[in-house]
């Protein structure tokens, strides 16, 4: 039995806290919001973000960040990606040398283009930083539906420690050394999911969705490999796996926001309607900037940016994607000689 804390009490943090407690560990959950902690403590349920999922009585809820961090064997950082840097700054003075922090949010900082683990390492240099990601909706993990994740770390022993902490009869965890690839897949798929939602909002069909998913992973993989990620990662759970679930699920906040935008909402209006952080909006600018930096063709990402930030109609973006110059699907394959 180990002592773990989850920093962030949203739907994903709450679901993972339940998983760790269910595995027999001592679990503390921190939130900056006193009313949220009061609700969780009294109701043993996140009535707003994870209704119907009952939480074990053993979980401790607190707004005391120092208490949540000191002496813990592992910290699971589960705040929305726009708050990763500010939360890391608040945590830094309490984190001990070598203390393990596992990032479970998905995003890229839009100004620096840094991954979330890079941000954590910058703000808390004394920590050992890792990532846990994959095709996983909190609503399903909270109901013990079979799910697979990937623990990424620089050292195999660290990844295996995370694997052992979370592994259960309903949660299977794989390991990988490709932290960069895992994080890029998790962040960039949210941008493609916005596009998939826009297609839904426009009334497009399954053919359109399949095209966006397939060409979307091609864009993600091109950029990811150029940045140093591994192609195996983008064809695995944290690449195509996460992309499929986020583009198609009723639980996906990015797909839902995209659907509203496709129906004519602005991204600000869509985010208010979804009532949760839509991380693809924050990652879209970074994805666009990275594509330009590494000279990678990312037409879906470019069109999403024009819709979000330049007022382009989603219907016009679809037309522009369809009428791009003709090309081969796989440029590295060789034809027979004439």
Note the gap between the termini: 68 Å
Task: Output the helix-strand order.
Answer: EHEHEHEHEHEHEHEHHHHHHHHH
Name the helicity range. Answer: 40-55%
Number of helices: 16
Report the strand count. 8
Per the principal axes of the C-alpha atoms, what is the gross shape?
A: globular
- Low-confidence runs of at least 5 consecutive residues: none
Radius of gyration: 20 Å
Mean pLDDT: 95
Largest sheet: 8 strands, mixed
In the sheet with the most strands, the strands line up as 3-2-1-4-5-6-7-8
Which range does the strand content fall in? 5-15%
Class of secondary structure makeup? alpha/beta
Would you summarize the structure shown here?
The protein has helices at residues 11-22, 34-43, 65-69, 84-91, 116-123, 138-141, 156-166, 179-201, 206-227, 231-234, 237-248, 253-262, 267-274, 279-293, 299-310, 314-322, and strands at 3-7, 26-30, 60-62, 74-77, 100-103, 128-133, 147-152, 171-176.
Provide an overview of this structure.
- The protein is α/β, with parallel strands linked by helices.
- It is built from 16 helices and 8 strands.
- The protein has helices at residues 11-22, 34-43, 65-69, 84-91, 116-123, 138-141, 156-166, 179-201, 206-227, 231-234, 237-248, 253-262, 267-274, 279-293, 299-310, 314-322; strands at residues 3-7, 26-30, 60-62, 74-77, 100-103, 128-133, 147-152, 171-176.
- Strands 3-2-1-4-5-6-7-8 form an 8-stranded mixed β-sheet, sandwiched between helices.
- Helix 5 (116-123) links the parallel strand 5 and strand 6.
- Helix 8 (179-201) packs parallel to helix 11, helix 12 (253-262) packs across helix 13 (267-274) and helix 14 (279-293) packs across helix 15 (299-310).
- The longest helix is centred in the middle third of the chain and has 23 residues, at 179-201.
- The relative contact order is 0.10.
